[in-house]
Write a structure and sequence with these properties.
single chain, 46 residues, mainly alpha, 1 helix, (Perigord truffle) hypothetical protein
Length: 46
């Protein structure tokens, strides 16, 4: 493993982590919205 490929490898790992994090965050936000809709819907008809 030569020194030139080290930053590239780090950049690739960082990018993959960033993408995964963004996807996870989006999924959590979407889930919260769905739960909130369901809860408010149930509360309205309670």
């Amino acid at each position: 493993m030569n020194l030139a490929s080290v930053p590239v490898e780090f950049a690739r790992i960082y990018l993959n982590s960033a993408i995964s994090f963004s996807v996870a965050l989006a999924a959590i936000t979407e889930l919260k919205l769905q739960v909130w809709k369901m809860v408010s819907h149930c509360v309205r008809f309670a």
